Amino acid sequence: MISGPLILALLQGAAGPSLHSSAPQPSTIIAVILPSAPNASMLEALYRLRGEADSVGFELRLVEAVANDEPRAQLDSVARGLAPAAVVALVGKTGGKATAGPPIGSMDVWFLDPATANTSVGHLTVEEEAGDRADLVLAVRVVDFIRARMFDSLVRTLAESKAKRRQVVTHERVGRSFVAAGVGSTGSFSGLPPAFLPALEVGYAVKKWLRLTLAAAGLGTQPRRETTAGNASVDQKLVKVSAIFVARTWWRLYPFVEAGVSAYFVSVHGVGYPGNVGYDPSGWSPGVLASAGLGLVLAPHFVVQVHAGGMLLYREPKIFIADTEVARTGRPAWLASAMLGVTF
Predict the structure, then answer these.
(1) How far is it, in rounded angstroms, from Cα 95 to Cα 107?
(2) One-character DSSP codes across 296-320
(3) How many degrees, rounded to 5, is the angle at CA 308 between CA 304 and CA 311?
(4) Which one of 75, 229, 265, 307 is CB 3.0 to 4.6 Å from 112, fit for a cystine?
(5) Is 129 helix (H, G, I), strand (E, B) or coil?
(6) Distances (CA, A) of 68 to 63, 122, 205
(7) 242 and 289 in contact (C-beta within 8 Å)?
(8) Which are the contacts of 233, defined by CB distance < 8 A and separation ≥ 6?
């Protein structure tokens, strides 16, 4: 007769590194309650079950049965202690006591699914015609019973758990603090061509879905207009404070929307042709803005963001040459940007 503790040690040693990996997740553990004196059919079933579990990423955790405890009580106790994906109890027809002579020919299998609290009990037998193959036949039926009840469900649960963990990790890569640099663009619907401006943005995520930002853009291209009286170029600067609402990350992408207030500064450099005088007036206007965009996680702590939207100015700076209106910024304007950011 081989005792239960020795069987546990032999099986765990034969299982290899997978049974000794550090801190396995409870959702990847199948706990098996082994009677004090397992027979050949049980051992064969355990080896086969371990192979099935390893092939789909589960770990087999062997637990020695408690003497005189009912299988159901032992199932509940192990489920509370280990919180595994499933608990299996193997019970021979003699109640777990070793017997000499031919194979036992039958076995009770108790299966507990903690996720649903459902327990399945199967009384499995093998015919006398199996002869010396009785242990093997019974072991195969035990594994088939377990697979038929919950194994496919456990595999799906494990896959969903891994997908959720990957999603959480990808989302956390976005980080809380944010610094980005890139190119911004502004334009109007009232005569001025677009301007392209170097831009800098800093932000802080007060929630995973909410980031407060401060951004500034300027020192970029100067849209130019010309008439018979002279020409004028416009230097633009933009400062904005906004709130960005970030959606859940899918794969490496996360959409977002932005809303905030802005301060728009304009300096006009006028050159008058002979007989006219050029001026360099400047002005500014407060405004509100809204935009939508998409972020891409390139690598941990590195993201790319692009967005486009609109801005509504309170005042409308206008450009004149020799009392002739050349252009105006327009109260409604559009803006866009492409930024490379670092999170930490």
Answers:
(1) 9
(2) EEEETTEEEEEEEEEEEESS--EEE
(3) 135
(4) 75
(5) helix
(6) 15, 20, 57
(7) yes
(8) 222, 223, 224, 225, 268, 269
Q: If DSSP codes are grouped into helix, strand and coil, which group holds residue 104? A: coil
pLDDT at 21: 40
Domains and CATH numbers, the chain: 4-172 (3.90.950), 177-343 (2.40.160.20)
Nearest to 138 by CA among 38, 35, 9, 213: 38
What is the sign of the dihedral through the CA atoms of 59, 63, 98 and 144?
Answer: negative
Whole-number pLDDT of residue 240: 95
Burial 78-116 (b: 16+ CB within 10 A, else e): bbeebebbbbbbbbbeeebeeeeeebbbbbbbbbbbbee
Record the tokens describing residue 129, joined without a space.
């015609």
DSSP H or E stretch at residue 119: strand 118-125
Exposed/middle/buried for residue 291 (C-beta within 10 Å: 0-12, 13-18, 19+): buried
Q: Is 147 exposed, middle or buried (0-12, 13-18, 19+ CB in 10 A)?
A: middle
Quick check: 201 pLDDT over 80? yes
Per-residue pLDDT for 14 more than 50? Answer: no
Which candidate, 309, 296, 299, places its Cα nearest to that of 335? 309
Looking at residue 216, what is its pLDDT? 94
Residue located via tokens 């371990």:
50
Between CA 162 and CA 171 the distance in angstroms is 14
> What does the angle CA 106 – CA 110 – CA 116 come to, to the nearest 5 degrees?
155
Cα gap 256→303, rounded to integer Å: 13
